[in-house]
Amino acid sequence: MLLSSRVYRKYRLLVVATLAISALAAGPAFAGRRIRVQRTGLETCSVDPTTMSNDAPGWFSVSGLGFTPGQSLVISLVSPSGGIGTIFTAASDGSFHTGLYYAPYLAEDGQWSASVSQMGDPGMTVLAICSFTVT
């Protein structure tokens, strides 16, 4: 009985050590993994309406065409002073529509832009960009 418990403890220590070493070794391998940006060259986006007021209730949406089917996208709304808000969506057929967003949340007046990039791309490569005006 004593021998089997000693073997069991050594086996358990071996398993824990193996898991710890494999976790440490895998971390850098996954950290350096590159995401391949999927471009079609036909990507476009638009904001509807292109001019909106943040002083009155109103809604806007961002749409796009020409993306890789099934591609997960990040839409970044960039204010005139450089502030960023993000929307996440997936292009199931190469197009996307973000749904409706409340315009008064865009507190800053001026020329805004919506840039579209692939989710997971550490370089945030812009696939499409469109602009709109907030008054």
Radius of gyration equals 24 Å
CATH superfamily of the largest domain: Macroglobulin (MG2) domain
Described by strand count, sense and barrel closure, the largest sheet is: 5 strands, mixed
Number of domains: 2
Strand order of the largest sheet: 2-9-8-4-5
What's the order of the H and E elements? Answer: HEEEEEEEEE
Number of H/I helices: 1
Helix- and strand-based class? alpha+beta
Distance between the termini: 81 Å
CATH class of the largest domain: Mainly Beta
Average pLDDT, all residues: 79
CATH architecture of the largest domain: Sandwich
Question: What is the global morphology?
Answer: globular
Overall description:
The relative contact order is 0.21. It contains one helix and nine strands, in the order H-E-E-E-E-E-E-E-E-E. The protein has two domains: 1-33; 44-134, Macroglobulin (MG2) domain (Immunoglobulin-like, Sandwich), CATH 2.60.40. Helices cover 22% and strands 39% of the residues. A five-stranded mixed sheet has the order 2-9-8-4-5, with no helix packed on it. With 135 residues, it is an alpha+beta fold. The N and C termini lie far apart (81 Å).
